[in-house]
């Protein structure tokens, strides 16, 4: 993993890494086969193994970076905006946006040139007339936009998220400019999509209620695209969003279900081999059907090893199974390391295995019912303790009622999952059993109502929690040292825990001091809104004619910025024509066209499409930078850019380049 992280952050060519890897493998082979001196072999052999592992990580990531190949489409694009005719292959359906139908697609030809590379295909909703199957070839004329940085500070970096999935652009077109060809790639994903589509269409045909159907499809098939944002938010606030992602809970049940069905086979050696093969094939078949998401891959890989261990009559070391499954998955999909779901999945499972016995030992229930519920609580706490720091770092919120949700919901999940699998098998055969369908629909309806009720207690959801990456790592150091000490207490471990506590305090103080020393002036990118912030330490003064003290929290860009930097809005005011920040003099000209002629600004900001002749302004002003806000007419901005270029004055168009910061 260190090799993957290093290769992801650094930039170097493939050849030196390959050469170093070959030399390291040669050295490792020499030490293993030739060196007889054990004292000499042990330290050097261990170091060599580490180097080889590190270089394998680097090499694996580099060979999976498609942009390194000259036939990737980003090397075939010109700098100017122009329409392209592309041939695309549909990989999978994505969640729709407000205005477009979206697909993950591969571009195999751009204009007249063959190429490789993935994109997000966006088809205008208003003109969308036909569904597109996985594997379909599509000829489309539209515009390719390369991924870009966030428009505002501390905003979710969607471009980087796509790059980690080897997607480097978005392709926009209208349905009338798309032609669905007869060519289809009939691979395993094509057939999996066909099975999913058949099940969903048959359930719709038999009037399965839409909200419950969308949850069922997420629970069994791992497809969350159609769940409403409000319902997903309810699951997040209730601390139960993991239920909607196919993971160990779901795959474990599938394994039990398969094992139960295979009890019909005789207990012979040959039959055991057949059962093992059938089990592994069924698990991976289910994984493909569920879309092979990171959490699905992790669960399927681990339970495959469990099935193999059962066949070989060997006890399974869960830590070795975890390590092997991580290694195999990252060897073929190294970008999964940067997937939040993958990280949360493995961290949660590790802490369940490692911490659950310690929590469980705190109380020994006297009957099976109390033991069952105590196991749910202890497992929930173990997983939540493990994922708490990374969840706070990524999402800045914590649902404190997670254990209540799990206590209420998990006992019924086995019933819903079992009945859900049966109903989907029936739907696949285009059969209909009203009692089963109605029972399942009502069960999911009750599940959603319980989740919505818990989520409505929003005072128990802690939001907008500040957490830097240093604080996250410091928290993990503290948690690990505390658990190690509690498992087998001694003096040395107590000292280690106290040292980790001091380290965490130093990191926390450093974050606060750094925040106190930060001063910045930001012009935000907002649709039809002009928002400027002036930060001095942890205090932010907000300047805007559109945002008030009562509604500023509704602006996601502001809320993200405040939370990410541990600040607070200390004051709000309307926009002024002139600001002085540090050594900079900043002039703002709005639609009124009023400005102070006697002040020579360093930075000129134009908003609300003022009718001013900036060429005339430049005769007596020579600003170091001209900033164009998002509320200007495009025709005005085009003219201003030409004038700035003519006068050799730098400019920053927020509509294209994102926020402006001093």
From TrEMBL:
The chain crosses the membrane at residues 12-33, 45-63, 237-260, 272-290, 319-338, 344-365, 372-395, 401-428, 465-485, 491-509. The keyword Cell membrane applies. It is a multi-pass membrane protein. The keyword Ribosomal protein does not apply. It holds the Pfam family DUF4131. It is found in: Cell membrane. Residues 219-488 form the ComEC/Rec2-related protein domain. This is Competence protein ComEC.
